[in-house]
Amino acid sequence: MTRLILASASPRRLALLQQLGYAPEVMATDVDESPRPGESPDALALRLAHSKGLAAATARPEAVILAADTVVALGDRTFGKPCDYEEAVQMYTVLGGLWHQVHTAVAILHRGRVDQRLCSSAVRLRPLSSAEMRAYWDTGEPVDKAGAYAVQGIGAVFVSGLQGSYSGVMGLPLFETAEMLAACGLSPPCLSGHP
To answer: Is 42 a catalytic site residue?
Structure first.
């Protein structure tokens, strides 16, 4: 049986795959996530997903490798994981009240082939007060999240609108991912009755 490798340390991506019945092996990869000069946010997400997948495929060429990357953007400006509270405040201040984009790229590498998809959604955060910013930061939730919020967690109370894929904003668009894995012979186990 073909082994599925999740090239990500994200507990959210793992949980989403498990929701579909997959039991992937987790293999975190370490790639430089810095944008290149002039690189658009969607191109950055695609490149990083591909790079993470390649890093895992080198170690496990026989497996189906699934890698993903999520980039939060307002126009051409990207918002990564905040380094500290001050950077998170800057993000909330800029994003508050505006629609922004969340680009999640998925890459599947199998038998020397690469299949990539980009899922782009629009999210609107309401403006946050200083007290809300501090209280939210102190929960610990925003620390490892692009854009310094989690749509599936406490941060949902600040999300006033979402157009697109909810699971894509979480970090793994399930519709696209299930289609891509099925094309590799790994249909969602939750639909086939097999573990």
So the answer is: no
